[in-house]
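Annual report, structural modelling task.

Input specification for the zinc ion complex:
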Amino acid sequence: MAKKQSRAKRKLRVAFKKNRERRARQTDLTRELRGQPDALDDRAADERVSGKGALTRYRTVRGETGAGGELVRDVDESKCLAGRVIAAAGLTSLVETGDGRRFECTVRGVVRELTRDARNAVVTGDRVLFQPAAGSGGVIERVNPRYGVIARQQHGREHILVSNVDQVLIVASLADPPLKPGLIDRLLISAEKGGVRAIVCLNKCDLVDPAAVQPLAGALARLGYDVVLTSAADGRGLVRLRCLLAGHETVIAGQSGVGKSSLLNALEPKLNLQTDVVSGWTRKGRHTTRRAVLYRLGFGGWIADTPGVRQFELWDVQRDEVEGYFREFRPFVPLCKFADCLHLHEEGCGVQRAASLGLISPRRYESFVRIVTGEPA
Ligand code: GDP
Ligand code: ZN
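The model returned the following structure:
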């Protein structure tokens, strides 16, 4: 569908996809649509027969242009409630309102038609307007413009895991499992790429001598990242961590076993309960393990826990992009003799020279080399 760029009110003709009308075989879509009369009614509206002989359905959608050029659809706000999608499962979403009520919502057909990829029509983290229905159901009428989207590329398509986050909490353990600074570097790249603030949490500090951690913590702090040493076991660092999370929308990332669940439970004892309720709900349908879930923090803010993101890189990064995400390399890249320098073995390389002079940490340089040569962390 073509999108016109303008800031004022505008209209958009949306063609309903033909494959929605007749499907050769049963799919999840048709199955999930059954029992959702609203979604079906929507389709039947505004039909016309096109000159090409095929039946095409159009509808005019009015609204305003959002920051990303998308259409923010006009809806009757007096009939709607505002909420946050705390979990999305296929065509249904669990939406939480400001006062903590939860509604199981379907999505108005036209909302799906406005998205390029129906899979991303409504995702965890979205701020939505929905029309409440009897009981605790509802229909999502509008998805507000997103920022801070965490996505991954899959088979050349973007799959949005969670939207509207402003920081990533990278959790690593100082021991058991042993510390892997290279993994922290990779997650930092992901945060840089997503344009979100990164906080590095070095957990299990009760198991090591904190003095031994200072060189790494200091080096990361000098790069401008917030670093916090914590112990979920004895409570050290939790006050500072709580301050860093309060009022923010944070996605938590890190290897399995580093203590993410323990930290969250130590920060917010009620979270345990929330986890059970929401994970029970998200077990419906397919791809349950890839689903993100959003939890409200009692001291303000939200935490997104995405199993699909927890254990590896958040975003896919091209090899030639990597240097740009090592922020301390930037002053030295223009000094390379060759414009297409890979900073590996080239002569006259500004980055290698800086590393050999200690202007760039040799550990970080080594980490860079492992990433661009495709070695594991
Ligand atoms: P997750 O996979 O990242 O969620 O890790 P868990 O929270 O499940 O923790 C893995 C193991 O590490 C559990 O046995 C925890 O009890 C333990 N653990 C977590 N945090 C700490 C800590 O700060 N210190 C110590 N000594 N153990 C911890
Ligand atoms: Zn170079």
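Residues 203-204, 206-207, 231-233, 256-262 surround guanosine-5'-diphosphate (ligand 1) (CB under 6 Å).
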